[in-house]
Design goal:
Helices cover about 50% and strands about 5% of the residues. The chain has helices at about 1-20, 50-60, 80-85, 100-105, 120-130, 135-140, 140-160, 165-185, 190-205, 220-225, 230-255, 265-275, 285-300, 300-315, 315-330, 345-360, 390-395, 435-455, 490-495; strands spanning about 60-65, 70-75, 165, 370, 375, 380, 385-390, 455-460, 480-485. The strands form three sheets. A four-stranded mixed beta sheet has the order 1-2-7-4, covered by helices on one side. A three-stranded antiparallel beta sheet has the order 3-9-8. Helix 8 (about 165-185) runs antiparallel to helix 14 (about 300-315) and helix 14 (about 300-315) packs parallel to helix 18.
């Protein structure tokens, strides 16, 4: 027995010493000194996008990290981004396996998290053609206009009472109601208390504070049920699934009772009609996952952008006056700005683009995952590496943007954001780029434009709005935006109709 013990010790010694000597040394990207077991975790702080930007400024725009058991590639230059989503787009077309993805995303039946392949292509085709194509976005214009009208009414009621307006809450309710109508055809009850209850439930189900799941980097922690993370995710999945199933079942019952086809059916109504033709593919899980992604990707990102944009305008009154003059010139005072006016308001679009540059809702893009070995920036990137693109670092790079920390909407005048390519990444790049960009942008433009057209705005308290970001992964304000508004005198007649 003692000889057997010594034999295994000898084999283990050979494994630890000889194998590393025989392994070819890889030309990996620059990397800081790592610690045993945890790797580079000790170098990361909140907010993560700033912490990574500091490392990138020291080691270069292509950085290699080891976080627990995971290899991570971090990039922050347009050339590296183009290489990842151009030459290597197919290689980085997958999402990394995560506990949250496995538990919350209906076994990969969501087009955002599905592995690249036939299922993903079919899911994306359904989502883009039926919900997010330019034709579909245009069909939903009446929903956006109705909900923006409701926003104007709420602002009017607040201004009559001289109350300060909680814009974070109102923008959140606006985007929730738009997405609920697009998905199911019904918004929250207009009663103030009922609407607030629905909004709080919606937030708790779809936007709980999860943070980084360390079990994804240290799998052994999952085996011991570390901090009840897996149990919490399963409970969240149960709550989400109950909410989504109730939504689907209600619409299914309503379709049974009312056989006449609608002119503009909701997303779930469309998918249920497809289910009748192809029940094997259009299962309830696919329908719920598709609507779920509309809620998660389309609500908070849009409301956060509106809050940052209004904050910037309150701190830059000249830009506010310039965009108001543009709206007055093209829309006038006799009607509320509508969807068809947006193409005639280029400076309004510049303001939104500059907001997205300074405060991208996803400062770090949704991670990608390499399916095979590849080269990025002249360095070797092993198969199974998690790719992180630091969009915030690119948007704030002085070698790319002139005075990047300043609010200068004019920098986008005469250009389309598409022409900025890998310099401007609020919606990602490549085949996994956000397909809902058009819908989100149009809602931001419409709501922001209507608020500017109808009201004068003042900051509450100090001369400037506090622009401190929060520490959560999503780039939101630490202090919710509150402001004072009053109807513009030449819009009184129009507003009296609300």
């Amino acid at each position: 027995m003692e000889n057997l013990y010594h034999y295994f010790c000898f084999i283990f010694f050979i494994f630890l010493t000889v194998k590393p000597l025989t392994r070819r040394k890889q030309n990996l990207p620059p990397s800081p000194l790592s610690l045993p077991f945890i790797g580079h975790f000790h170098l990361l702080r909140n907010p993560l996008y700033k912490s990574l930007a500091a490392l990138l400024s020291k080691y270069g725009p292509v950085l290699y990290l080891r976080l627990g058991s995971r290899r991570v590639l971090v990039v922050s230059s347009p050339s590296a981004v183009e290489e990842c989503f151009g030459k290597n787009d197919m290689i980085f077309a997958n999402r990394p396996p995560t506990m949250a993805g496995d538990i919350l995303m209906y076994n990969g039946r969501s087009y955002v998290w599905a592995p690249h392949g036939p299922l993903w292509r079919n899911l994306r085709r359904v989502s883009v053609v039926q919900v997010l194509s330019s034709i579909s976005v245009q069909k939903f214009s009446s929903i956006r206009e109705d909900e923006v009208g409701h926003l104007v009414l709420q602002l009017l009621e607040a201004s009559a009472g001289g109350q300060k307006v909680d814009l974070k809450y109102l923008f959140g309710v606006l985007t929730m109601n738009v997405m609920l109508k697009v998905a199911s055809g019904e918004a929250a009850d207009r009663d103030r208390k009922a609407e607030q209850t629905v909004f709080q439930e919606f937030k708790s189900i779809f936007f709980p504070s999860l943070g980084t799941n360390v079990c994804d980097f240290f799998p052994v922690l999952k085996w011991i049920g570390f901090q009840g993370i897996e149990k919490g995710l399963k409970d969240l999945y149960r709550r989400r699934d109950e909410y989504m199933q109730k939504l689907v079942d209600g619409i299914r019952l309503n379709r049974t009772l009312h056989t006449a086809a609608k002119k503009n059916p909701s997303l779930i109504e469309k998918l249920l009609s497809f289910q009748e033709e192809d029940p094997q593919f259009f299962s309830d899980e696919v329908i719920k996952a598709t609507a779920l992604m509309l809620f998660i990707a389309g609500t908070e990102t849009t409301s956060v952008t509106l809050e940052w944009a209004m904050s910037l305008l309150l701190n830059h009154p000249k830009a506010l006056e310039k965009v108001r003059a543009e709206i007055d010139s093209h829309v006038g005072h006799d009607r509320l700005l509508n969807d068809s006016d947006l193409a005639k308001l280029p400076y309004l679009r510049c303001i939104v683009n500059e907001t997205l540059r300074l405060y991208p809702p996803a400062p770090i893009l949704v991670p990608h995952y390499s399916s095979e070995d590849c080269m990025v920036g002249g360095y070797e990137v092993p198969k199974g590496t998690l790719l992180i693109v630091n969009a915030w670092a690119i948007h704030n790079d002085p070698s790319i943007w002139d005075e990047p920390t300043k609010f200068k909407p004019e920098r986008f005048e005469g250009t389309l954001e598409e022409k900025e390519g890998s310099k401007f990444l609020p919606f990602g790049l490549g085949r996994r780029a956000c397909p809902g960009a058009t819908m989100g942008i149009r809602l931001v433009l419409l709501a922001l434009g209507a608020a500017i057209q109808c009201f004068h705005w003042e900051n509450v308290g100090s001369d400037t709005v506090d622009m401190t970001p929060g520490t959560a992964p999503a780039l939101s304000k630490a202090m919710p935006l509150e402001a004072l508004c009053s109807p513009r005198p030449n819009l009184i007649k129009l507003l009296s109709q609300f």
